[in-house]
Amino acid sequence: MNPIDPKQLKRDATWRAQDILFGLERVPESQKLILGSSDFGVYEFDVAAEKPERVAFTGEGHTSYVTGAAIVGQTLVTCSYDGKLIWWNLADRQLIRKVDAHEKWIRRVIPWADKNRVISVADDMQCKVWNVETGELVASFTDHPAMTPNNYPSMLFAVDVSADSRWIATGDKVGRTVIWNAETFEKTGEVETPILYTWDPKIRRHSIGGIRSVRFSHDGNRLAVGGIGKIGNIDHLDAPSRLEVFEWQAGKRLHELEDPKHKGLIEQIRWAEDDAWIMVAGGDHKGFVLFYDAASGEPLHAETSPGHIHGATFSDDGQTIYVAGHQMIERFAVPQEAVPAESNPPKAAPAKS
Amino acid sequence: MKRSHFCGSPEHRIDRRQFLGRTATAGAVTATAADMTVLDLLRQPVLADELKKQGKSVILLWLAGGASQFETWDPKPGRPTGGPFAKIQTSTPGIEICELMPKMAANLQETAIIRSLNTKIADHGGGYKLMETGRLPEPGVDFPHLGAVVARELGRPDSKVPDHIEMYTSHEGRRKGTSGFLGARYAPMFLTDDMMPQNIRRLESISAVDHQQRADLRDMLAQQFTRELQVPSVASQNSAFERVRGLMSSDYLFDIEQEPQAMRNHYGPTQFAEQCLIARRLVEAGVPFVKVARAWWDSHGQNFETHRELCADLDQSMSALVEDLRQRGMLESTLVISMGEFGRTPNINGSLGRDHFARAWSCTLTGCGIRGGSVYGKTDENGNTVAEGEIGAGDLFATIFKAIGIDPQKEYMLGSRPIPLADFNTTPVAEVLA
Question: Please, what sign has the CA dihedral across residues B114, B116, B122, B128?
């Protein structure tokens, strides 16, 4: 295996779409992508095919944007702004069950494969843990206020579980990340990233931003929190993408990384398998994929995309990155001729989600 | 229809021919205060329209920056342009609005939704001018804004409260409504920073007794003067002093601390909510026109989250206002309008935003003179065009005037040029009128 070197990464395929793709997963040991769409549908898209075409999952599906997807074993769980979680059989793409999971928009669902669970977060400010096999609710917890300090509805955008299954992190609109004991679901810690939330009290009198992504390093000690920096004109996503990295147990902020050349929200974060680098993806009206050295915070590499990126996933071998977003799917990979026969760059993240 | 307002007194010996003659002699083409001295004759009590006795009022909820029709009054769930929100049933069977407006959905029985505005102008400045005056700008003519016209038509000469108040506390898009050729008399009291008008309190250096004695002395002198010289300008002076005095004593209207906490909670905790409550207090006290501007809906990025935030504010405050007016028996005499300078595009851009769009958008009219629980007009399945019942800004203004009992075709004379209240070739939407 020749692990990925971020500096060698190039776009090697683009598939245009009519819709907006929010959820993105990859079926293990395949190049089949699972897409959650603004047309409310869930699709399989096999990029290994000569002419990839979407195949829809069937059944009484979602009734709003499909915002996330999580694969555990042979089961796919999707979430939507309709407040439902839907269980699907990956093999035959048939609906297994639909659950009224949250009272408001579900922002994300992630796999917790070790426990045969998935975790969802929604604008009812609840984080919920679900048994994949039975569909039963295992736990529901929150420490995120329903209203912002300015008396408007808050939102709970982001969630992650550490690789060792010890911690869960949840991130909200006003820039607050709470860390939970994944065994007891009790609050363990928190970190504040207020710059990710812009409240304009005078000129336009509303808000924008929020924590859009959180990700533990593989050793679980560091936590990356992504969003957008302070915005002057909140009509637009007109501010640098912003990543903050913490040694969360020590309450120590390691990095505040802003990239004025790549504006917009950081929607996805991935750590290298050895935690050497951090990949972020997102955008404003266009998209970006950025790599940072996790130790120094120095930028390593940047790729752009024609559309805002909402979802990202790696191939099994970590050689390839798939992204999906506004009217497009893209694939980034290291060109074969650029891969040295003997190389020892940092390993890419496994395809956790 | 022949107009005859002459009561027989020398004071009021003026007819249309004289009126036109005087203004034409003045050579007035562009609006001047002199024109309005003439027009002010129409405000003499004997000429006052019967409507003014009926205490009708207008509250304009100005959604500055342009709210999305998809996320408010004309949802298209399931369409490529529809966005993520569902539609919900309202209190009127068969009428559905966006799920972001649940409280208004439960209070729609006095509201008419117009879904077929095509106002064509999709820049903020141009759209604002159009939707504040109901007509396109003309060189050399300073058209009055809606509030000034309503103040002139519904304001009572003997009123002790202001008759045109605008609240616009956000900075973006802030433009003070103009009274145009109607003159400064109808210009708004414009509140921008504080909700309490500034400089209306009695100076601390003048005691209350001193203040009253000064007023009494002025009244005595004025009455004496009036007895000896009966001219309109004296009455106008007296009226102005009375209004200033009334204004000084009306600061309590802006003080929502005087409202029960339960009522304040009902409206909500935001500044917009408090301003809506003040608007109710003002119209209750006899103010004929109040504009409450809620900025800023210009959601080029993150349209859905912006509307989740702003619609929550609009829904609670607007529904509380409607309920409050209803419970006080004021909704039959108060017209509540919600609109901005335009709507938002069907297309959802890469930042999950919607851009400016004026070809097919919505507004609402609630209360006075309105056939509640009605929808007028229709857009196509994706909201790209008006499919039925297209109207423009002038038609909307004609409808507003008609709803509050003002003849839309009534004319102001600007020099020798007649200018109807609602623009030429416009028609009220009869289907939404009671």
Answer: negative
Amino acid identity at B190: F
**pTM here?**
0.88
Q: Which of A38, A150, A208 sits opposite B302 (nearest CB)?
A: A208
Nearest to B348 among A20, A63, A237 (CB): A20
Distance of CA A273 to the CA centre of its chain: 17
For chain A, give every domain's residue range: 6-343
Residues of chain A with pLDDT under 50: 1, 341-353
Q: How buried is residue A243: exposed, middle or buried, by Cβ count under 10 Å (0-12/13-18/19+)?
A: buried
How far is residue A207's CA from residue A104's CA, in Å, rounded to a whole number?
19
Helix (H, G, I), strand (E, B) or coil at B289: strand
pLDDT number for residue B159: 82
Task: From residue B259, give the alpha-carbon distance in Å to each of B64, B201, B329, B403.
Answer: 27, 21, 18, 30
Kindly state whether B40 is in contact with chain A, defined as any CB-CB distance less than 8 angstroms.
Answer: no
Locate the domains of chain B by residue range: 1-43+55-60+137-161+172-190, 199-269
Q: Using CB atoms, which residue from B172, B301, B305 is nearest to A155? A: B305
Instruction: Give the CA-trace dihedral at A167, A170, A176, A178, to 10 degrees.
Output: -30
- In angstroms, the CA B79 to CA B69 distance is 14
A204 with B80: Cβ contact below 8 A = no
pLDDT of B35 over the 90 cut: no
Mean pLDDT of B243-262: 84
Residues in B closer than 8 angstroms to A40, CB to CB, are 78
Q: Is A271 helix (H, G, I), strand (E, B) or coil?
A: strand
Distance from CA of B300 to the nearest CA of A (A): 5
**What is the mean pLDDT of the segment spanning B400-426?**
96
Cβ within 8 Å, pair A204-B172? yes
Most B-contacting residue of A155, A235, A305, A309 (CB-CB within 10 A), to test interface: A235
- Residue B115 CB contacts under 8 Å (≥ 6 apart), including other chains: B69, B73, B74, B360, B362, B375, B376, B377, B378, B379, B389
DSSP state of B205: T
Which helix (DSSP H) or strand (DSSP E) does residue A156 occupy?
A: strand A156-161
Token pair of B140 as six digits = 């050399």
Task: Please check whether residue A207 is in contact with residue A181, taking contact to mean a CB–CB distance below 8 angstroms.
Answer: no
Per DSSP, chain A holds a count of helices (H) and strands (E) of 0, 28
Buried b (16+ CB within 10 A) or exposed e, B167-201: bbbbebbbbebbbbbbbebbbbbbbeeebebeeee
Long-range contacts of B244-250 (CB under 8 A, 24+ apart): B245/B160, B245/B215, B246/B159, B246/B160, B246/B161, B247/B160, B247/B161, B247/B162, B247/B189, B247/B197, B247/B200, B248/B200, B248/B201, B248/B202, B249/B160, B250/B160, B250/B161, B250/B162, B250/B200, B250/B285
Closest residue on chain B to A207 (Cα) = B306
Best to test chain B binding among A16, A39, A40, A206 (most B CBs inside 10 Å):
A206
B130 touches chain A (CB under 8 A): no
| ipTM of the complex, rounded to two decimals | 0.92
What pLDDT is attached to residue B29? 35
Share above pLDDT 70 across residues of chain B, in percent, rounded to a whole number = 83
For A6-343, give the CATH class: mainly beta
B347 to chain A: closest CA residue:
A19
Q: Which residues pair with A58 in a beta bridge?
A: A94
Q: Which two tokens stand for residue B60?
A: 């304009």
Check CB contact under 8 Å for B170 and A202: yes
Percent of chain B with pLDDT over 90: 69
